[in-house]
Amino acid sequence: MSALLEVKDLVVKYGAIEALHGISLTVNQGEIVSLIGSNGAGKTTTLRAISGIRRAASGSIVFNGADISRQAAHAIVRSGLVQSPEGRGVFPNMTVAENLDLGAFIRNDHAEIAKDLERALGLFPRLRERMGQMAGTLSGGEQQMLAMARAMLTKPRLLLLDEPSLGLAPQIVQTIFKIIREINASGTTILLVEQNARMALQVSHRAYVLETGKIVNQGDAKELASSDVVRKAYLGH
């Protein structure tokens, strides 16, 4: 498989504090790759650097053959790399339909947008019932569905998902991860940041383990799930 995303020796700082200490990772076309680790490990910082929200101090980020390390976030979105952020980030005083419309703001292929909207509503049928409802009145699970559907309307080649199961009931978590599989099966490559390591490893092809700003383990997701170190640290064994 060819690499769609290559991160090499990435260093990110917050003032004098170095949050990422030269991490490297790759995401190949068609994969789901997970980045797992405890709170404060640097997972969200990694996604923010990749999506251009946080500028890297050094290192390179290559997406689809182009170095995007110094590109603005809006330019990175236009190149096909889109993030669904931690905390969902929906616009609470806008309707579900208006939030979805914003997902397609960079596009003008109206017929294809209509098809992609139908595809998104097929994945998230609950949203179809709530198109006129204010996003701020949705449940946490519904807001997560909206955030993911809105990201899909941008038609990403690579979708960054930051903690999609955070704060959700177990039944909704199962639904979200089922949809993640379906999004990937339809052709979208995914980089998933997730504290629920068990679910993340179940849906992923490969994974990286991040601890205090460093990659400490990586490999096939099933092999990592059966690793004693990972099982004890992240799977509750």
Strands, helices and their partners?
Blueprint: E1 3-14, E2 17-28, E3 32-36, H1 43-50, E4 58-63, E5 66-67, H2 73-78, E6 81-84, H3 96-103, H4 110-123, H5 125-128, H6 140-153, E7 158-162, H7 170-185, E8 189-194, H8 197-203, E9 206-211, E10 214-220, H9 221-225, H10 228-234
Parallel strand pairs: 3-8, 3-9, 6-7, 7-8
Antiparallel strand pairs: 1-2, 1-4, 4-5, 9-10
Helix pairs in contact: 3-6, 4-6
How would you characterize the overall build of this protein?
By secondary structure, this protein is α/β, with parallel strands linked by helices. The chain has a domain at 1-73 and 190-230 and 233-237: Rossmann fold (3-Layer(aba) Sandwich), CATH 3.40.50.300. The chain is built from ten helices and ten strands. The strands form two sheets. Strands 6-7-8-3-9-10 form a six-stranded mixed β-sheet, with helices on both faces. Strand 7, helix 7 (170-185) and strand 8 form a beta-alpha-beta unit. Helix 3 runs parallel beside helix 6 (140-153) and helix 4 (110-123) runs antiparallel to helix 6 (140-153). The chain is globular, with a radius of gyration of 17 Å. The two termini are 33 Å apart. The mean pLDDT is 93.
